[in-house]
């Protein structure tokens, strides 16, 4: 029975099975039973297809409940606390039963083990496993009254191009991630010190402020040769990728599920670091060549950001992911990473900061400036994503079609000139006919060109949408720390807190402040390098493209010289 529903957020379709919906649009739902978090229905334009269940509310009669919350349903967010609602996550589309999901289990070595084994209440941020902020507005960056925290230990996909922005705006969190992540406990000195902290991450003062100390053993890692493989006598299929770290130059083979596991460990551990999002899943066509190539390109960018980060690149779990080839050692390393105690707020205990004094008000002003910058950059990245996506559609569709029309029109002229043989000029007719074919060729060149330039641009923009979306939570942690410092100083002035205790809170706030500034510094450093490379690559490919078009036209022009 069809039901009416209202769209809570914008959603832009990327596959033929999906449809786009707009905020406040009235929809028709064919069935309120969601499948893996997706519903099937019809939008106001008569288009039928899939869209995220958590993006809509069912409209019911006054006698019934006001709406259906899919986020707490088994398909939306299994096993989570009742007051949590799963966020809209269009990066994880519907998984059809007709296509075996390559992410159902851990891997070929350890199929009995699942990823979600640790307690769901463990501290963390960056969207997980603490209740992090989600801002799903794709176009207008609307603020919503409802808070949708991230389900514990569920992958947060990369921001799909043109789907949504990160929106660095005011905090709408009912259950403050500052409290839930454990950072408040750290600031108040309630996080127990470990007897022995094996890992240490140092922050030092650079020319532009605090920065992470560089990895003493830098390396890069290639991602190559996506290969379809099978197991269980062909019942299950998946894609494996060949990874070759430069520091050992010995390849390992990893499935997307392995990346997924590593990503969850990173989010679980690194409280104040913007972990790059993984490429999104897709509802259907996981083994189609275009999708596999797109995922490979984006995994390459993801890996470049991982290996370039001074902290993430040294993480033991990441090194294990890149280097381990032995089955037994793999399982041991996996368990060790999952039992790591230095996660969430405890990770802050591993950070060593400089002795240089920083005025907290100056730090707060610096954070506010970065917050404003992040918001503006997010808006502009989303704008460019939408423009580039539309240009891709025009290249593949509109431009090719128009050039084909022009080519057909030229050939029609050539055919008409053959109608009166005594006055027919074969040389002219052939030249005009060839001109028509040339423009058809140019149309095909336009259709193929996005693979050479616009795809890399969209890949880079998608990565930065994900990176930017992490900063609201991280900035919120710092804001909470600032508030605790001001509160403790006021209580000290009123005689309700020892000055020594207030000084301890200020000292621990400095750790969070230095870490955030170091992360901001690294973000800017990578941003300059990435956008330089993106723009240079785009312009070079554009030049080559128009040179090829020019060569085609010049060759055709010479056919008219000796008529």
Topology:
Blueprint: E1 3-7, E2 26-29, E3 38-42, E4 48-52, E5 56-58, H1 177-180, H2 183-187, E6 201-206, E7 209-212, E8 221-231, E9 236-245, E10 252-255, H3 256-269, H4 289-308, H5 316-323, H6 327-338, E11 351-352, H7 360-417, H8 426-448, H9 454-493, H10 499-557
Parallel strand pairs: 6-11
Antiparallel strand pairs: 1-2, 1-5, 2-3, 3-4, 6-7, 8-9, 9-10
Helix pairs in contact: 4-9, 5-6, 7-8, 7-9, 7-10, 8-10, 9-10
Give a quick precis of the structure.
The protein is an alpha+beta fold and 563 residues long. Helices cover 43% and strands 10% of the residues. A hairpin with a 2-residue loop joins strand 6 and strand 7.
Which key phrases capture this entry?
single chain, 563 residues, alpha+beta, five-stranded antiparallel sheet, three-stranded mixed sheet, 10 helices
């Amino acid at each position: 029975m069809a039901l009416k529903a209202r769209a809570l957020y914008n959603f832009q379709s990327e596959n033929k099975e999906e449809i786009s919906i707009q905020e406040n649009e009235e929809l028709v739902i064919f069935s309120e039973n969601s499948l893996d978090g997706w519903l099937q229905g019809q939008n106001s334009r008569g288009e039928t297809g899939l869209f995220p269940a958590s993006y809509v509310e069912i409209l019911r009669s006054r006698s019934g409940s006001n709406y259906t919350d899919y986020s707490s349903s088994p398909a939306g967010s299994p096993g989570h606390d009742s007051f949590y609602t799963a966020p809209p996550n269009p990066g994880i589309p519907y998984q059809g039963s007709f296509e075996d999901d390559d992410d159902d289990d851990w891997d070929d070595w350890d199929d009995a083990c699942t990823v979600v084994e640790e307690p769901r209440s463990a501290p963390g941020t960056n969207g997980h496993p603490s209740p992090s902020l989600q801002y799903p507005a794709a176009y207008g960056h609307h603020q919503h009254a409802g808070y949708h925290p991230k389900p514990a230990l569920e992958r947060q996909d990369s921001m799909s191009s043109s789907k949504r922005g990160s929106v660095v705006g005011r905090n709408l969190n009912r259950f403050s991630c500052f409290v839930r992540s454990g950072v408040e406990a750290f600031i108040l000195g309630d996080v127990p010190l470990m007897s022995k902290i094996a890992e240490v991450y140092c922050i030092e003062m650079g020319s532009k402020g605090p920065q992470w100390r560089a990895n003493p053993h830098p390396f890069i890692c290639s991602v190559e040769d996506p290969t379809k493989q099978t197991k269980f006598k062909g019942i299950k299929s998946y894609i494996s990728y060949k990874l070759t770290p430069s520091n050992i130059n010995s390849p390992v083979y990893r499935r997307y599920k392995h990346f997924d596991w590593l990503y969850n460990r990173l989010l679980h551990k690194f409280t104040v670091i913007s972990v790059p999002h993984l490429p999104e899943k897709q509802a259907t066509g996981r083994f189609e060549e275009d999708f596999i190539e797109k995922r490979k390109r984006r995994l390459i960018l993801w890996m470049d950001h991982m290996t370039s980060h001074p902290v993430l690149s040294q993480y033991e779990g990441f090194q294990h992911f890149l280097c381990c080839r032995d089955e037994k050692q793999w399982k041991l390393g996996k368990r060790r990473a999952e039992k790591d105690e230095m996660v969430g707020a405890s990770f802050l205990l591993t950070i060593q900061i400089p002795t240089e004094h920083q005025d907290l008000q100056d730090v707060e002003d610096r954070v506010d400036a970065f917050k404003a910058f992040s918001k503006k950059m997010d808006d502009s990245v989303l704008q460019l994503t939408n423009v580039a996506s539309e240009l891709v559609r025009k290249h593949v569709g509109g431009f090719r079609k128009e050039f084909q029309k022009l080519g057909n029109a030229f050939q029609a002229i050539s055919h008409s000139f053959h109608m009166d043989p005594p006055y027919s000029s074969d040389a002219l007719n052939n030249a005009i006919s060839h001109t028509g074919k040339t423009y058809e060729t140019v149309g095909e060149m336009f259709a193929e060109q996005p693979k050479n330039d616009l795809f890399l641009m969209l890949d880079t923009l998608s990565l930065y949408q994900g990176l930017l979306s992490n900063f609201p939570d991280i900035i919120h942690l710092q804001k909470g720390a600032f508030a605790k410092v001001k509160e403790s100083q006021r209580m000290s002035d009123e005689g309700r807190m020892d000055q020594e205790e207030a000084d301890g809170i200020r000292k621990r706030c400095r750790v969070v402040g230095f870490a955030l500034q170091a992360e901001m510094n690294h973000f800017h450093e990578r941003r300059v390098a990435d956008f330089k490379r993106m723009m240079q690559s785009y312009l070079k490919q554009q030049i080559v493209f128009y040179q090829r078009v020019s060569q085609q036209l010049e060759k055709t022009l010479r056919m008219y010289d000796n008529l």
